[in-house]
Amino acid sequence: LKYIGYTTLAYYFYNPLDGDADYGNYEETLLQIDSYNKRIELPIGYYHIDSWWYGEHIYDGVWLWQDDKDLLKERFPNGLNALYKSLQLPLGAHVGLWVSSSPYVQNYTFIINGDTALPNDPELFDFLFKNATSWGLKLVKQDHMNEQLEYMQTPWEDINSIRDWLLHQSYAAQKYGIRIQYCMDWPSVILQSLEGGNVATHARAGEDYLPSQHDKQWKIGITSMFLYSIGLLPDKDTFYSSTWEVVDWNSKSTFYNFKEPYPFTHALVMILSAGPFAPSDGINGTDVELVMRSCRNDGVLLKPSRPAVLIDSAYIQRSIGSGGAIGPQGEVWTTYTKIDIFYWHYVIAVALPKSYYFLTSDLLTNFQQVIETDFVTFSFNKIYGGDSSIEIVNFSEQNPIYLPSGSNYGSISFWVICPILPNLNIVLLGELEKFIPISAQRIVNIIYDSSTITLKLAGSYDEQVKMSFYDLNSKNKFTIECRIGKSGYTLLEAPSGNCYQT
User: Fold this and answer.
1) Do residues 104 and 110 touch, judged by C-beta distance below 8 A?
2) Is 332 strand, coil or helix?
């Protein structure tokens, strides 16, 4: 969750560079992907290997789940430990529906219903996760959770069966420093994460990113609210970062001849989720500029303080609205970054059937605090389009933000709302080269008086950081550039432009 990742869920999903979907050489594929990412200086922090790694299609589920020569065969000729040593990066790994033909059934306790099995033995997960530490496992993606219930009768008769399964998994993961993501889950199953401590960190909030649903699986504003309320971050799933990449060489690929028309929307939604950010591009297919808008040079993600969620008035509109101006018809979400006691807000609207005026009362924070704060705002769309002459306007209940209607999920409006700090004539606009201009991962703290604002910035050594400001008196925008010191920090002072490496 801290670093940008790479996942094999799109371009190379059951689609290795050499060989067929089930027995191709995925080890060499991952090594070539890693070589490409290094060449384009993409600071990947981990790799995710999906269900093909243990042969899900071969065995109709999880048969074995370990670094085993008989299991991995052609997929990883040298084994997972060798892959981990070559990549020198942690791995995330998929686990799905367990099958009753698994050899583990002979040595560990399972609940068996026909062809499906449910692990019910803490010793099994202790064995699996201890083994997995040798090949760098740091995250388990527990997938097909709905099928684990739907394909079995026992969970409907014994409520403790699911609880025991997930608790055994959580306790072993905690022991070996592994985190868990839930996927294809029900609310009742998600709630079980509360008993497992802080091991489960995030859960899928939408459908899979697939050619059949790429235009709607980004709609996670409602589910994000539910997940965040119980301490989990949402996962949008992956995306293609460019419009030009296409799998045109393997007609059996799920993504054969598919092109993503609006990668900007997927990228922005993913970073606004405050969850994982992991594209799935093919070699030579990455839009580096777009992807790097999500992170620092060392790969640390620049996030809001919480996930973006559907605004309250949209729920009212959906419940009792009849065409009036109660709330927006469609997807309007908001979130914020909190630095010290101040909030920088973000508003996103996608494919609205009708235009909407976004009000200060639509913001997430305490309304009393909102009415006591003056704001200015600007549209991010112009920045992404290369227009540096952005227009800074006042934002209030009397001066709302106009969100136009749109015909598809490429019709997006993204606004940044900045507080006017008390007794200061300079507004901090932030790092305009990034999706989230103000983030706690970049700005450690803010100190200001009536004439000066000082930011403590974090980053990688010698990274150049550009912070933009707006002078309320002259109505001009200005930018100050500083480089991060050897300590990983630097102080930036405005309006003087002084930089002090610490």
Assistant:
1) yes
2) strand
